[in-house]
Amino acid sequence: MLTEISGEKWLFLIPIKESVFVSRHNIPMKQDLLRRYGLFDARVPRYTSYPTAPHFTQDVGPSHFAAWLMDVPEGARISLYVHVPFCRRLCWFCACRTQGTRTDGPIRRYLDVLKAEIQQVAALLPPDVTIGRLHWGGGTPTILPAEMIAELGATLRSNFTIAADAEVSVEIDPTCVDADRIAALHDLGLTRASIGVQDFDPTVQDAIGRQQSFAQTQSVVENLRRVGVKNLNFDLLYGLPFQTEERLEATVQQVLDLAPDRIALYGYAHVPWVAKRQVLIPAEHLPDGPARLTLFDQAAKTLATGGYDQIGIDHFARAGDGLHMARQNQTLRRNFQGYTDDDCAWLIGLGASSVSRMPQGYTQNNPSTSEWQKGVLDGRLTTVRGHKFTAEDVMIAAMIEELLCQFRITPARIAARTHAKLHAIESTMSSLLDRFPQIVERDANGVFIAEDAHVLARIVAAALDQYNTAETRYSRAV
């Protein structure tokens, strides 16, 4: 999952990553214009939600979540996210809501409570809801031994009906998975695996506290494909210490050899004031803004040559992949997991720190594993904060989402989706023309960001934000 950066450490649920977009046609934009709009200095949200996570409040609690769960219509198709907040080794670059453990004892206790929460949530939902998407994230979900994977899978299946065509995806750490775990995931119904790569270069890996060879990753990919898991996602990072054009190019070429279906190319966000373990990373060897832009541009060109089309601001996919088709069909969406082709209105988070998105708003479970466990064992929902949508929130969220997915805003589509008044959409949208006269243009359908200015999409989106983003320390725009 992806979320926003805040000065409050308990808001951090998942890896902090930044994004930048360079034109699919590599049309250059002068750096002085990029600087004028603050590309190399601005800190703006990623907008995996709106409002962003730092604006969640304690005004939303367990009673709201319970009511929203009970309001899910009979026969609805919903999505589930399951959070496993444990790792064998904590990578220095990562700001996941996770904790290190060398033994299985804490994992066993967590799983027992997670099973209780699954039953608790299922009891509040109509009995005939269907799971269309199931995603396990972390942390490291594959830290679960094979028997625990099977146990968690059995609990999910005994409490929910998982659709025959459901996408079941799991985040996999190649350094923490074996044949037995892969077999257990296959028995679970795994259809897509997400593999963190970051960078294969040993010098870069040493600087970020990670040890993962190409051979390890290749072996896991081969084992997954051997059991029939055909859909693979890879995550890469640019902007890492000691990362050069040559080193990143070598990593991208190795990734192309493994031929995943989609690739996320995120920017490393150095925020040691929040992710304390990042103090171990040598900041003096981090590339600056213009160098990061060059790294991304080079990688994007190589991926394009390798047959991947750019999706939104930071993803790449081959023809036939769900994200690729969603972009073509203009049904691409954003949620806490980044870009998705999942258009389900109900995303229910399970586990410590998990976020749920419902038509009424957002809720977040207690991020403290011990407090979350205590609450569940007391028979309580552990919602500690959230946000209840206003009509304006729904309109702005749709506008920002379309801007980051399609680089345009189409009032007619927004009105049909949100039931907002056309004049309200037009008024809000028109402000972008005044604020960004050189990069936002108008056509018969609405407004759009000029092809060579897509790199500024997050900055343009922030201009629509009705909440005070200046008070929160978000990630850099590039």
UniProtKB/TrEMBL annotation:
Catalytic activity: coproporphyrinogen III + 2 S-adenosyl-L-methionine = protoporphyrinogen IX + 2 5'-deoxyadenosine + 2 L-methionine + 2 CO2
Location relative to the cell: Cytoplasm
Pathway: Porphyrin-containing compound metabolism; protoporphyrin-IX biosynthesis; protoporphyrinogen-IX from coproporphyrinogen-III (AdoMet route): step 1/1
Enzyme class: oxidoreductase
Binding locations of S-adenosyl-L-methionine 2: 93-95, 139-140, 198, 210, 235, 269
Record: residues binding S-adenosyl-L-methionine 1: 81, 138, 171
Cofactor note text: Binds 1 [4Fe-4S] cluster. The cluster is coordinated with 3 cysteines and an exchangeable S-adenosyl-L-methionine.
One GO molecular-function entry: coproporphyrinogen dehydrogenase activity
EC number: 1.3.98.3
PROSITE patterns the UniProt entry points to: RADICAL_SAM
Residues given in the record as [4Fe-4S] cluster binding sites: 87, 91, 94
Cellular compartments per GO CC: cytoplasm
InterPro entries: Coprogen_oxidase_HemN, Coproporphyrinogen-III_oxidase, Elp3/MiaA/NifB-like_rSAM, rSAM, rSAM_sf
Domain Radical SAM core: 72-309
Keywords tagged on the record: 4Fe-4S, Cytoplasm, Iron, Iron-sulfur, Metal-binding, Oxidoreductase, Porphyrin biosynthesis, S-adenosyl-L-methionine
Complex formation: Monomer.
Protein name according to UniProt: Coproporphyrinogen-III oxidase
